[in-house]
Each structure stands twice: as C-alpha cells, then as structure tokens.
Amino acid sequence: MEEEKVKVLKVKAIEATAESFKEYGQVIEASADGLPFGPHDAQLHLSRGIPRFYIMSLQNRKLKFSTITHHANVTQCLGSIGGHAWYLGVAKPSIVTRVNVDDLSKKIDKSPCGHLYVPPNVEDVQVFRITGPKFIKLNVGTWHAGPLFLSEGMDFYNLELSDTNVVYLVLGGQSHTNSTKWSRSHGLDSILRVTTEYYLSPERTYQSDVVDHTTHNFSKDNGVVFVIEE
Description:
Oligomer: single chain
Number of strands: 20
C-alpha cells in the first residue's frame, strides 16, 4: 500500500474496566489480602513454556499504530509501574481451530508460528485507556498494539513465556545448534543484518522461525493507520 494512500483513522479511547474489557481479557485490580482465589484473579495460561515475569522499559511509544499482534500459546499480563495512564489497541481473538472453522468465506491466513487465523477487521479495533493501580490480562490470541503512552518513556511489568517473542534463524536446513537466537526486541532487521554479517554465505540458506508472535499490518494490508484520541 503506497504511503499516500494510507488513511488515518481516529479512535476514541475508552476506560478499561472488567465489563468493557471482558471480550479481550481481564482487568485486575487490588483485592483484600487473604481473599481466596476466584474469578476476580487473573486466569492464566502458562503451561506451554517457562513463564517470564520482568520489567519492560519502553521509549517513544506515541498514540498511533499500524500493526497489531497476537500470541497463540499464552495469556499476557501488562501493567504500568506507578499506575500511570497508558493505552492499548485490541481486537478479539481470531485463531482458527477445528471447532470454529464454520465460515469458509472468511480469509484465513497461516501464521509463521504454524497456526491458522482470520486477520482482524479494521472496524473491530478498539482502544482502551488503563489508569491507576491495575493491570490487564490478555486472553490467548487477543490482538494487541501497545503499550502506548504520552510521556517519553514508561516501565511496565510483563508476564508471558520466556520464548514468546523469540526469533530463531535456521541456517542451511540444519539444527538449532547452528542457528542464532535473538529477542524480537532487537528488531527483525537487526537480526538479519547480524546473521548476514556473521553467518550467511553463498553456500548457506536460512529461514526465520518465530515462536509465538503473529502480526497483522493494517497499513500494508488495509491502507489505514490508527491515531488514538484521549
């Protein structure tokens, strides 16, 4: 899609509450100490790998986006350190399984991660504002863009799997003992540059293998970019 043909869509952010966010996951707020586990707690799916809980430092994530991502193997929890306001674009999960392939008229794509999914529609994108001492849990497969925020930088706690955003590069069709492993946080371009410099030769070929990071590009595939209105 040529840049001059990309349309800017303004989306009004709504406050994330247990009710407004229920189709995408959960909003978890403080509860009394000693309260037994129940539906008010984050219902987590972490059984397909090693859980990773860490503080994620982000810079310059302004209130616009043109790509959106989902994870097919794990729930994800995100919250700002200090309870500062932040924003998240979302769309409902659209992973295709044997039990929900009931409309073959829909466009179905295959993720680099191996599963099938229906690309999110432009009109299905919603934006939420998260404020105060709370975090959100994204259901398995929920499309998300962010965190986004107004300040120059913010720190977030993040719970996912240790390999959720890892990219493997397999060289020459050989095993992973001859491959590089980089976090997607370095950026795919950086991965390719490093691999080209140190590993690739005319006699070798490679392929990328993303563990659990499926992305839809609205700018390229739909000709739109979203701008968030507070």
